[in-house]
Amino acid sequence: MSMQIETILIDIPTIRAHRLSVTTMRTQTLVLVKITAADGVVGWGEATTIGGLSYGEESPESIQTNIQTYFAPLLQTMSASNVAQAMQTIHKAINGNRFAKCAVQTALLDIHAKHLGVPVSELLGGRVRDSVPVLWTLASGDTDTDIAEAREMVALGRHNFFKLKIGAKPWQEDVTHVIAIKQALGADVSIRVDVNRAWSEMECIQGIRALQDGGIDLIEQPCAINNTDLLARLTQRFDVAIMADEALTGPDSAYRLAKQHAAHVFAVKVAQSGGLYEACQVAHIAHVAGIDLYGGTMLEGPVGSMASAQAFATFPSLAYGTELFGPLLLTEDILKTPLQYQNYQLHLPQTAGIGVEIDEDKIEHLRRA
Ligand code: MUC
Ligand code: MG
């Protein structure tokens, strides 16, 4: 009994330009993975990158090519029922490609959970929560626009804590922008920054000190990915929480960062971890090391975001919440029933699988030719 696998690329414009230190996004490309089991049950997975190859080592096109060329022949020899065995075969045959592996694992878990009639979270250890808090990222590039956007989100009941993307401008300008937003929104609204590895050691020391004094709650990946020595020095030096993001690429790096005391908080991403199982392993390494947890995103659409939510719902604690707002940044939905964002949380349904119902007509209409 063999499985069939299809990959579909969809380009969706964002609701506004999304400015990071590494790129400015105006569209997001979803790589949808559709696996059909021998009995006809369909599982979905998704991978996204940020700005093609601007952020990481995989692109939507490399994910599609590698799944079709290298994963598909392997999957055609397997049954969908044992996800662990399937992933072990894939890991033996394929190096790297964590995002592609995550998308394929997600689709296999979706099928297995549907066969068992349970949500995917039940295959990952079980839920300790049925919803996760979701922040909004302010990244328009303009202080007044960001303040207006944040106020609107609070008023709508959508988001009540925010992350600001900085690092593209001189640090003094960025800090002035961040503090102005913090002061406008007040003491009760948590503001965090993501520097996306833009700062040198001196910029880190000066910038983080100013942000700490200004009441900012969390500093995400301030320095280069491989400079974990500096991340460790900053973690020791500052009281404001330092979070590893790009430096965290799965259980091995989680272990090394924890051993090095190189972060107060881990931003766990399912794609960066190489899968949902691996994201849960990262969370458990953090937990035993006393490192707090945050549920990160690669700005996935609804499939990847709900897959992430299924994993984050099992984490022993989620002290810094999540950023699973990716679907809300897109101008088009590909689901029959939209995800439930209410009361500042993303709610997980009890339905079997990942918890999404794909609108296949919509996908046919949007897919890249
Ligand atoms: C990142 O580095 O965290 C997550 C939210 C966002 O705006 O960008 C991503 C990537
Ligand atoms: Mg980040």
From TrEMBL:
Q: Ranges for the Mandelate racemase/muconate lactonizing enzyme C-terminal domain?
A: 144-241
* UniProt source species: Vitreoscilla stercoraria
Pathway per its UniProt entry is: Aromatic compound metabolism
Entries under InterPro entries matching the protein = Chloromuconate_cycloisomerase, Enolase-like_C_sf, Enolase-like_N, Enolase_C-like, Mandel_Rmase/mucon_lact_enz_CS, Mandelate_racemase_C, Mandelate_racemase_N_dom
Cofactor(s) the protein requires to work: Mn(2+)
Q: Which family does it belong to?
A: Belongs to the mandelate racemase/muconate lactonizing enzyme family.
The name this protein goes by in its record: Muconate/chloromuconate family cycloisomerase
The record's annotation in SUPFAM superfamilies points to: Enolase C-terminal domain-like, Enolase N-terminal domain-like
Keywords, comma-separated and alphabetical: Aromatic hydrocarbons catabolism, Isomerase, Manganese, Metal-binding
